[in-house]
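ARCHIVE CARD
Drawer: 12
Card no.: 0347
Subject: one protein chain, sequence and derived structure
Cross-reference: see card 0346
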Amino acid sequence: MENVRNLTPAPGPISGIIACGVYTAGRRIADIPIEEAGEWAKKSGHVVWIGLLEPDRNLLLRVQAQFHLHELAIEDAEHPHQRPKIEQYGDALFIVARTAQLIDGRVTFGETHLFVGSGYIVSVRHGPSTSYAAVRQHWESCPHSLAKGEDFVLYAILDFIVDNYMPVLEQIEDEVEAIEDKVLLKPMTAPDIERLYMLRRDLLRLRNAALPLVEVCRRLTSAELPQIHTAMHPLFRDVTDHIRTVQEKIDSLREVLAFAFEASLLVGQSQETANTKKLASWAAILAVPTALAGIYGMNFDSMPELKMEYGYPVVLGAIALICTFLYWRFRKNGWL
């Protein structure tokens, strides 16, 4: 094994290439240049694992030449914004998966394109996504699992992508709980409603990114794809279970946000009703002195009460008594 390492020294860093290694029996035996990947992949018991980050067309064409990848797949890998899918081109599979990260309070999406064929797997990352170096390092410490081949590496990457949806959802869940706690205390302001709407929209976009992977995993567990060994089917079904868990969490969070919005509307309506009752109560109380003052403010000579000796204090007393009664009555009914 040491002799192999000496024959194939690690290449210098090249823009767009994160890693390019060859494995046998689950152990990395060499870091190789792209131009040698095709020959290594043809060797029995060897797997070439290449990781690319936003490669240019020239680099993709170099990879294409090594594994004879289909031109349509290369075109898709060059231009992101693809829907999650799985395509079969001859003996190779082309898989698109969406990645997600929470950046500045918004869910941002990236893409991973995967080429899988006999003796090789190539991952192409675009946009925000967690590096797959952690996947590589983890499974390199478990050579028995990594020795299962390129379809196991495919499972490891898809499982990592789906698992990384959960930290995003957990951060959103914390914010949703905070919204839920304060929604009954006061009505939502315009910025609060805007934020709630953005969260619901981001959750819907995340659902649309994750859910198509169910169909991808279903096809990976079918007999129509000879590139995937039967022994790997339970692992891809496990990824499907994780996606369903993500879907359920997204749906529950969207439902909570919908209830929070409805509760906020009810709280706002309740407060508006209370304010209306207060205004109506004070208007009724003030109507009494206004009406009496208006009546006795008319310029008529023949008004019997004008000549009463105690007419003025009597009217004031009547105003005070009626207003006090109305205040007590409205207060008792909870309007004031």
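Annotation on reverse: The radius of gyration is 36 Å. Residues 36 and 87 are 26 Å apart (CA to CA).
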